[in-house]
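Input chain follows. Return structure tokens only.
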Amino acid sequence: MDSNRHNEEAVRPRLVHLKDASDLDVADGDPDIRGWDLRTLDGEKIGTVEDLVVDTSLMRVRYIEGEVKLDDVAQETKRRILIPIESARLDEDEDDVIIELSSAATRALPTYDGERIPDAPVDGLYAFDDSSFFGARRLGREATPYIAPLTDSHPRRMDGPDERLL
């Protein structure tokens, strides 16, 4: 094996899309929210969770990538946005991710190009607060990573829809 190739494989960016990290997945026992509906505080369904941006140094989600459809006066627009994890929360009963913004404020979010992930400083385990996102579901497990390395007992499903979402 070429030593340069080995070094390239060993170094991973700190922030990555979960879909691009073939050796990572959502930890067992936690919901995989990809495919869930995105809703605003006022209850409007605006889109779908497409992917998660993971902080690999903490093994936690930093951003939710969503594809949103917003009805403007002149036309319906479809675009991708990044939502900071601390600006959202789960509704597991309905398989929804609630964005803690109004529909109008969501329209003002910048379009995400799908490639350039914003830099996010990290100062330790509690550098950002995802407790409101998970609510009571992770109470007592706050230090446990939401993202985990894949193991033989937890293979990533690559063919067809994810059974955990059905």
